[in-house]
Amino acid sequence: QSVLTQPPSASGTPGQKVTISCSGSSSNIGSNILNWYQHLPGAAPKLLLYSDNQRPSGVPDRFSGSKSGTSASLSITGLQSEDEADYFCAAWDDSLNGWVFGGGTKLTVL
Amino acid sequence: QVQLVQSGAEVKKPGSSVKVSCKASGGSFKNAISWIRQAPGQGLEWMGGISPLLGSTSYAQKFQGRVTITADESTTTGWMELSGLTSGDTAVYYCARGVGQYLISYLDSWGQGTPVTVSS
Question: I need a surface site. Which of A48, A85, A89, B3 has the fewest CB within 10 A?
Fold first, then answer.
């Protein structure tokens, strides 16, 4: 039921590359910046990428983002066990006049 | 880096109200503050927000008339009050700060979440 669509789960082995997708529409991803967050259980969500592909200070360059049209993706290279978390995307929606989110993708490091 | 600290877990009866606080430390409170919730097994849902500098609030249509978001710059604290609680309001409630004064500013800091349980 989330406005932005993400796969519910993703997995990879240490060292691998994983990509998580986020799909929306012209009123959100198609016209506004897309942001990614990492969320560990019981903790505050952490900003991972902003403005489609910008990393805040302290976020490793293993994390990268891209956007095309109404879809975006988060890529994690050199997967580490500490990357195991929930990842969700977020964008402002001009039609709803508010923030919309993806349903979250649970990343498992095998 | 600003840190947002929210009030503790709440258990409420159906029909009552809950008021959750969000205190900011280490940064400006002039930025927009949004309130978001996540019900069990559900995705995140934006409830509304406030721009303290602009003195304006905006609420998601779903919560219009039931939610009130306020902020006090002098104490760097914000509040979200939700009335007419039902079991469907059982969720974890988050506050999040935008990088600018407008609600459209991306959210760079989040609180730790406040679980609210509505049960008779």
Answer: B3
